[in-house]
Amino acid sequence: MSDAEAVDEVVEIEREDAARRYVVTVDGVQAGVAVFVASPSAVTFTHTVVDPAFGGRGIGSRLAKFALDDTVARGLRIVPRCPFIAAYLREHPGYEASVDWP
Asked: CB neighbours of 82 closer than 8 A, spacing ≥ 6?
């Protein structure tokens, strides 16, 4: 895939409360999910996966950023039990005041 093709991709991310996950799609195809458990005060991220066909394109990072920003915007704490989310938090400052490390 060329850079021009990547620029033309339509990437959408949404929170599916009933399924307890954030879903990222690329051009209408599900590319990955971030699974969570919600409580009245926190969102515990338990598992994140991106289909290998979409690997190396920053899709996982976009999914993590969206999910974490949404959690903070909702006034909830972030509990990173998922290794991918935990690594993202360590590499991207700015969330420290909202994280409860397990």
From this structure: 34, 35, 45, 46, 47, 48
pLDDT digits (tens, 9 = 90+) for 80-101: 999 999 999 999 999 999 999 9
Both structure tokens of 94: 């700015």
Calpha distance 40→37 (Å, rounded): 10
pLDDT digits (tens, 9 = 90+) for 31-59: 999 999 999 999 999 999 999 999 999 99
**Among 44, 41, 40, which Cα is nearest to 21's?**
44
Cα 12 to Cα 52: distance, rounded to the nearest angstrom: 18
Report d(CA 40, CA 85) in Å as an integer. 20
Helix axis angle, 83-91 to 59-73, nearest 10°: 80
Q: In angstroms, how far apart are the furthest CA atoms of the chain?
A: 44
99 C-beta neighbours (distance < 10 Å), count: 19
Choose among 29, 41, 34, 9: nearest CA to 19. Answer: 34
